[in-house]
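Problem: given the chain below (329 residues), write out its structure.
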Amino acid sequence: MVQAKSWVLDKHFDGFPKNSDFKLKVEKLPELKNGEVLLEAVFLSVDPYMRAFSRLQMKEGDVMIGTQVAKVIQSKNSAFPVGSHVVTSCGWTTHSISDGKELTPVMADWPKDVPLSLALGAIGMPGLTALHGLEDVLGLKEGETLLVNAAAGAVGSVVGQIAKIKGCKVVGSAGSEAKVAFLKELGFDEAFNYKTATSLEEALRKASPDGYHCFFDNVGGHFSYAAFQQMKHFGRVAVCGSISVYNDATPQTGPFPHLAIIGKELKVEGLLHDRWKDRHPQSQRRLMGWYREGKLQCREHVTKGFENMPEAFMGMLKGDNTGKAIIAV
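Solution.
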C-alpha cells in the first residue's frame, strides 16, 4: 500500500498566497486495477497560471493544480511499462494512479544527458507556449523587433532565444540587475530593469526608438499599456499572461490601451499552448534540437523537497526564480 502526500488548497487565495492557504494531506492509495499505473513524482512545476486558474478551476480542498514528470513504479497497462517516464497534470502530489488516458510519455529517445526536468520547461509547456506564440500567433519574421516582458522567466527566456534564432532584434525587461545580465548572456539585444527605470515609457523608447513589430506579453497591467503605445502600425501582440494582476485582491482599473489598438490597428490575440497539441511532438523535437545545438539555453531554479512546494510557488510569484521554477522530490 502506497501513501500519497498532496498539497491541497485549504482556502482560496485572497491577494498574495499565504502558507495558511495550503494544507498537506496524506492518503493511502488503493491497489491497481487492470489498465492502471502507479506514478511517483520526480519533478514538479510551479507556474503563474496556477494562481490565475485556482479560483476558476478549483474548490477548497482540491489538490493544487499542476504538472509533473513522474516515473511509472507499478503498471497494469502495457503502454506504460515500469521505469518509463511521463508528463502528467495530476497536481501537487507525490504519488497518483492513472488509467493512462491523460498521460504524455516523455519522448522515447530523450537523451540521457538532458535533464528530465526540461520536459516541464524549455522542452515542455513553457517552450511550446513560446514557440507557438511566436510562430502561430505573432507570425514573427526575420529582421523584426520583438519586445518580451518577464523575459528571464520560463516562457520569456525561451521567447527571446527563439526570436534570436529567427534573426530578430529582441528587447527584454526583467525585475533585477542579475536577470538583466542573464538576458544579455542569452543574446538579447537590449534588456532593462523595469523596477529601477525612471520611466517605463522612456526605457521602451530607448531600447527601440523605432518601436516594436511584435510584443509577447506575460505581465499585463501598466507595462502592457506602456508597450502598446510603442507598437508600430499594424503591430502584433501575443497575450500569454498577466502576472502583474494575478494577486490583486481588488481588480486594477485603467489606463486602457484601446485607443492605441485602434489608432495603430494592432492585432491582439491570447494563447494557450494546448491549441496546437497535435503538433507538440514535432515542436518538442525542434526545441530539443536547438538545445542540443547550443542555441537554446535552459536555466532552472530548483527547490529540493516536496514539502517546500508552497514556498517555491510563492517565491516564483515574487520573481525569485531566473528561468523555470522546478521542485525536485
